[in-house]
Amino acid sequence: HLQPEHFPDLILRNIFIMATRYAEVTGAILTRAALADLLAHARADAGKVALYQETYDLLAVTVADEAAFKWSLDQIRELAAERSTGEALTQAMEILTRGLPDDRGEGRRGHTEARSHLLGRLAEIDTGLAMQDAPEGDMRAEGEEMLGDYAGRKAARASGRSPGINFGIAALDEKLNGLQNGELALLVAYTSEGKTSLVVQLAHHAAVEQGRNVVILTTETLRPQVRRRLIARHSCVDRFGVPGGLNSKDIKQGTLSAEHEDTLREIIADFTHNPGYGRCYIVQVPRGATVGYCEAKLVRIGRMFPVDLVLMDYLALLNPERRRRDLREELSSTLKEAKQLSTTINDGAGVPFVSPWQVSRTARKEAEKTGFYTADGLSETAEAANSADVIISLLAPLDNERREVALKMQVMKNRDGERASAIDVHVDYGTSRFYTRGRGDAAMDHLLSDDDILLG
Q1: Greatest CA separation found in the chain?
Q2: Would you say residue 269 has pLDDT above 90?
Q3: How much is the pLDDT for 379?
Q4: What gap in Å lies between CA 391 and CA 188, rounded to an integer?
């Protein structure tokens, strides 16, 4: 977590260096006597030796519990980031006004160079703040741990719980067996086919039905829009007695009936106060943000509560950490960084990371002919097919203007499980609810009984 540059005080910096090197060489804690030997070897004068030993004595008698220790780590890193931010701003101003040579001795000057330098340094600072421990160990000593992991998964299945994060779409969940920690999942479709609706469906089912903590990072949809969609999805819960649920459009426009306004209050009260639900934390991602920014944000959120699922709507709108030659390379870099984030977050425990991914118009036309998408149709970059662990596609009718439509879903890639070429589902865009027919869904049967609703 810490490096020598985190300590602006010279004595603390040098004690940190000596303590870490001593531990690496001997495997032991730096003692007062060992410190004296090191200082003697460095030919420090008596005054400096006394100052170092006095500092050592103060450190040695200080006792901190785990919470205080972790807080101190965070504070040291935050202060170092603050200093680095100041330095980055100063350097950017020099580039803007007078010019500054780069690492190769070439001059940089002007607004474009200053902005590029500042954004790059801020991305590095965010990445440093988000850096976490990664697990390691000898597998030969972990037999009991592996058996315990298997036993936990078996017990979860026996009790009807999934060891992963489910979508709440039975036919899909049967194939995936839940999204797992460390998996990058892409929801592939053309514009307006239901990618964001599927994000809402997944977030709601994870938080409400599975009690998992969900973080939604949104770049193109405002937080109030996401909230409205989640509440509309929650209105479909049977106990609220609203056949078909509340249309998010009516919530947005304030056109609910008086009866449904009372129901809306009940729905919001349940969603926000029910202790059995997981948290649903929505982050409006600023323009120009990178994967490093998102990682730093997730680390900070993780200090408030454990993060079980991350939804990014959507990944392709993030800026690359560094400018590349073209858009294809930038998207490839962003995907690789997102995959690394999914595996390294939570000190290496990982988290499922899910994002929509838009296909090209050409791929959409080809899918209309064949009835399914192919990996070649992933827009702009083949890296989407390489980095992702799970790829789920949505194919809606071309005249996709109704509130309710029938969709074809595919599991195009499933690194640790089965794929599926065709899963028939229905989506209600008004509530972001995905469902299958013939499973006793009385509310949806009622909604679909209207003569003006045509499916397929």
Answers
A1: 95
A2: yes
A3: 54
A4: 7
Burial string for 356-378 (b: 16+ CB within 10 Å, else e) reads: bbbbeeebbebbeeeebbebebb
Query: CA–CA separation, 154 vs 158, rounded Å?
Result: 6
Q: How far apart are CA 410 and CA 373, in angstroms?
A: 8
For 283-312, the DSSP string reads EEPPTT-BHHHHHHHHHHHHTTS---EEEE
Q: How far is 384 from 205, CA to CA, in rounded Å?
A: 25
Q: How much is the CA Rg of the chain, to the nearest whole Å?
A: 27
Residues near 446 by beta carbon (within 8 Å), at least 6 away in sequence: 243, 244
Which whole number is the average pLDDT over 398-412? Answer: 86
Would you say residue 450 has pLDDT above 60? no
Greater confidence (133 vs 141) lies with 141
How do residues 14-29 score in pLDDT, each as one tens digit? 999 999 999 988 889 9
Q: Write the CA distances from 335 to 222, 252, 294, 317, integer angstroms.
A: 23, 33, 13, 11
- Length, in residues, of the chain: 456
Q: Which amino acid is at 64?
A: A
73 Cβ contact list (under 8 Å, min separation 6): 1, 2
> Could you tell me the two tokens for 82?
């603050």
Write the pLDDT tens digit of every residue in 73-108: 888 988 998 999 999 999 999 999 988 887 666 778
Distance CA 252, CA 238 (A): 22
Q: Between the CA atoms of 266, 230, 411 and 154, what dihedral angle is there, to the nearest 10 degrees?
A: -50
